[in-house]
Amino acid sequence: MSHHFHPSSLREYDIRGIVGRTLGEADARAIGRCFATLLRRAGGTRVVVSRDGRLSSPALEAALVEGLTASGVDVVRIGLAPTPMLYHAEAMLEVDGGIQITGSHNPADYNGFKMVMQRRPFFGPDIQRIGAMAAAGEWDDGQGSVSDHDFTDTYVGRLIAGYAGGSYRIGWDTGNGAAGPVIERLVQLLPGEHHLLFTDVDGHFPNHHPDPTEVENLADLQRLVAEKQLDFGLAFDGDGDRIGAVDGQGRVLWGDQLLMILAEPALRETPGATIIADVKASQALFDRIAALGGTPLMWKTGHSPMKTKMRETGAPLAAEMSGHIFFGGEDYGFDDAPYGAVRLIRAIHLSGRSLSELRDAMPAMANTPELRFRVSEERKFAVIDEVLARLAAAGAEVNTTDGARVTTADGWWLLRASNTQDVLTARAEGRDQAALARLVAEVDAQLAASGVVRG
């Protein structure tokens, strides 16, 4: 027996595809067989499994569990859960690995698998290895058991442990995603006044798409904050590992701005610590970390590289523009949006200012949202190489950590290839609108030189 995955489904950080077209139950079964075989060879015997609220998740979970047990691994099911709850369960229960079935923030017909093995992210070469093993039918036979465990109260208790964040009036929008039940329980334990939107889990996503990085998906939360005159609002993506926020005036705070707020108490507690942000983050963030006496580090976008770099540097905190916020030290180093919410409330409280006041104090920069350009999977990395070669020839000031981040007198611009989609993404930040226009023109010129037109 062997199994061949659709080549587009084996991604850098997970296995993901369109259910019924590029991903199905046979894939789930094969993932279970290969993951279980790798785990047993590494001396492991038990895996925790959970799923998000997508319509296809229960069937994929059943097939995955079938594959895991058929290769001799015992499975602990924790049911419907946001991805960070799976990470916590993998770290706290007596298990050797974990798999979350989730389509994250992709459209409703997508689904996929995020994996951890022996407390480490399972990505890149690990995922390619599963592809190769399945194609060769290289898996062990066995007979594992299945048990169910309710982990929600343990997880929420972990989020709230030692809470010292004061009392606020907060709006919460979980977008019908998997974080809903956790947030419902969390707010019962928090002081203050809480107004909840769309906490019922519904894989049709009837209200808005569960992606807080798109401004239109925050409109309901902005309306709620305005109508009820709340202090601020918090939003979550479909599987609860990314956070969005709006202040009392309805202004959106992006991942780098949230990190500016979180950095202050973190550096008070760990003076001089390294704090990591991805290459899309504002220069204002790196400057702020340095001003607070910390060591700013710019690193690659993506949850697996971020987690690995945090472990290497002992960083207490890291964030991506996309709303992944990672907490290091005794907090395991996960990207955990419900925990991020608790920590953000605490940081606002410790600052002695409102979120609106903290937002007002940030330097005013002119910047673009993330600009996206469709480029074929085969071509996307080649375009970046061409751009880097032209920049080198021109003697530009370039950071090549992840794509090209170019600093000029006007500010900076970034062009990188997405690890998860067939797109190039760009971003630019200038000291004013005129400077920003010049930076965006540079991006367009580089893309045009490689035959890519902004669509």
Automatic annotation (TrEMBL):
Specify the protein name: Phosphomannomutase
Q: Which cofactor does it need?
A: Mg(2+)
CDD domains cross-referenced by the UniProt entry: PMM_PGM
> Which organism was this protein described from?
Sphingomonas hankookensis
| PANTHER family to which the protein is assigned, alphabetical | PHOSPHOMANNOMUTASE, PHOSPHOMANNOMUTASE_PHOSPHOGLUCOMUTASE
Q: What Gene3D superfamilies has UniProt attached to this entry?
A: Alpha-D-Glucose-1,6-Bisphosphate, subunit A, domain 3 (3.40.120.10), Alpha-D-phosphohexomutase, C-terminal domain (3.30.310.50)
- Name the keywords, alphabetized: Isomerase, Magnesium, Metal-binding, Phosphoprotein
Provide the family line. Answer: Belongs to the phosphohexose mutase family.
Q: Which InterPro entries match?
A: A-D-PHexomutase_a/b/a-I (IPR005844), A-D-PHexomutase_a/b/a-I/II/III (IPR016055), A-D-PHexomutase_a/b/a-II (IPR005845), A-D-PHexomutase_a/b/a-III (IPR005846), A-D-PHexomutase_C (IPR005843), A-D-PHexomutase_C_sf (IPR036900), A-D-PHexomutase_CS (IPR016066), Alpha-D-phosphohexomutase_SF (IPR005841)
Q: Origin, by domain of life? A: Bacteria
Positions of the Alpha-D-phosphohexomutase alpha/beta/alpha domain: 11-132, 165-250, 254-362
